[in-house]
Design a protein that fits this description.
Helix content is 40%, strand content 14%. It has 363 residues and is of the alpha/beta class. It folds into 2 domains: 237 residues, Aspartate Aminotransferase, domain 2, CATH 3.40.640.10; 119 residues, Aspartate Aminotransferase, domain 1 (Alpha-Beta Complex). A 7-stranded mixed beta sheet has the order 1-9-8-5-4-2-3, sandwiched between helices. The protein has a 3-stranded antiparallel beta sheet with strand order 7-6-12, with no helix packed on it. Strands 10-11 form a two-stranded antiparallel sheet. Helix 1 packs across helix 8 and helix 9 packs parallel to helix 12. It is globular and about 65 Å long.
Length: 363
């Protein structure tokens, strides 16, 4: 059994993917080929924003957004400690200070009340993560940002395709970034990412930054990155895109089947009524996680832990001075979360095997 079955996805779309790869190989336009602009236009339309700019990874897309906004040493960026390290990593890479705020104990997305309390004169930006495929509470977060003159950027690296009050993830705030890492809801065959915004000037700065800060050949106006999205990855994503909404629907079916059979036995994901998650992960919570995970592994069932240690407990952020016991909701989640196999091609038989083994272990 596969935790995420990328081979099944490739088999399903193999003809289109292989043709897209061959088109790039025959053209030899491996850098900035026309498929990159085509993907940018298609995903901007999908999200409902004016501009999308492709990057070599979701991390680079986030980093470029901070660089384009001029986030710098002395600035503070408010974010969550319960996320992959890239979210806070990019803040430190531009010299700014991550200010962590605890998560909502149900959704595990950043708590807007905590965000409001964390604002200081040095605050410049709020960087919420739409964790596990469910959008953060952008109605409240945007209101807080507007009230205090802050920039709000969605880390949508897990939530591309999700909905919040009828709007797509990555179109909910001043700007956003997503990832096309293969395991993501819309995944490529390697690294890739994209930034989104309505702001034409910001989009142009992002394009300059991803090309080493180059405004014309060998003319560099700002420090930038080697951050381009590969043409091959763009072509593969274009081949997968027509199937994406069907995959989202399939993820909903898998999630609802988990929900119905596991109700009352484990702590299930809490999905807010104004959101539709894309279930990048289906993550339950169990008190005896290590024992459950080992028992499932013994039955050939793969699981994962997203994430075993909050960022404030990571050695790289020790200088921020947070106590290990800070952020109790994030700490408890880190001790309990367990992600089960989740992908659009998960068969009922395989899912039943997961559920039966889990219920047997919890009996």
């Amino acid at each position: 059994m596969q935790f995420i079955d990328l081979k099944a996805q490739y088999r399903a779309y193999q003809t289109a993917i292989d043709a897209a790869i061959q088109e790039v190989m025959h053209s030899a336009q491996f850098i900035n080929g026309p498929q990159v602009a085509q993907l940018e236009q298609a995903l901007a339309r999908f999200v409902g924003v004016d501009h999308a700019v492709g990057f070599s990874s979701g991390t680079d897309a986030l980093l470029a957004l901070l660089m384009a906004r001029g986030i710098a040493p002395g600035d503070e960026v408010i974010t969550t400690p319960f996320t992959f390290i890239a979210t806070a990593e990019v803040i430190r890479l531009v010299g700014a200070k991550p200010v962590f705020v605890d998560v909502d104990p149900d959704t595990l997305n950043i708590d807007p009340d905590g965000v409001a309390e964390a604002i200081t004169p040095r605050s410049k930006m709020i960087l919420p993560v739409s964790l596990y495929g469910q959008c953060a509470d952008f109605g409240r977060l945007n209101a807080i940002a507007d009230q205090h003159g802050l920039w709000c950027v969605e880390d949508g690296c897990q939530s591309f395709g999700a909905l919040y009050r009828g709007q797509r993830s990555c179109g909910l705030s001043d700007a956003a970034a997503t990832s096309f890492f293969p395991a993501k809801p819309l995944g490529g065959s390697g690294d890739g990412g994209m930034a989104f915004t309505h702001d034409a000037a910001l989009a142009e700065r992002l394009r300059v930054i991803r090309e080493h800060g180059q405004v014309a050949r060998y003319q560099h106006a700002v420090l930038g990155l080697n951050g381009r999205l590969d043409t091959l990855q763009a072509a593969i994503l274009l081949a997968k895109l027509p199937h994406f909404e069907a995959e989202i629907a399939a993820r909903q079916q898998v999630a609802q089947r988990y929900m119905s059979r596991l109700a009352g036995r484990v702590r299930l994901p809490v999905i807010r009524p104004d959101t539709q998650s894309v279930f990048a992960q289906f993550t339950i919570r169990v008190a005896n996680r290590d024992a459950v995970q080992k028992a499932l592994a013994a039955r050939g069932i793969p699981t994962a832990v997203h994430y075993p240690a909050p960022l404030h407990q990571q050695a790289v952020f020790a200088d921020l001075g947070y106590a290990a016991a800070a952020f109790p909701a994030a700490n408890q989640a880190a001790a309990e979360v367990l992600s089960l196999p989740m992908h659009p091609f998960l068969s009922n038989a395989d899912q039943d095997q997961v559920i039966d083994a889990l219920l047997e272990q919890l009996a």
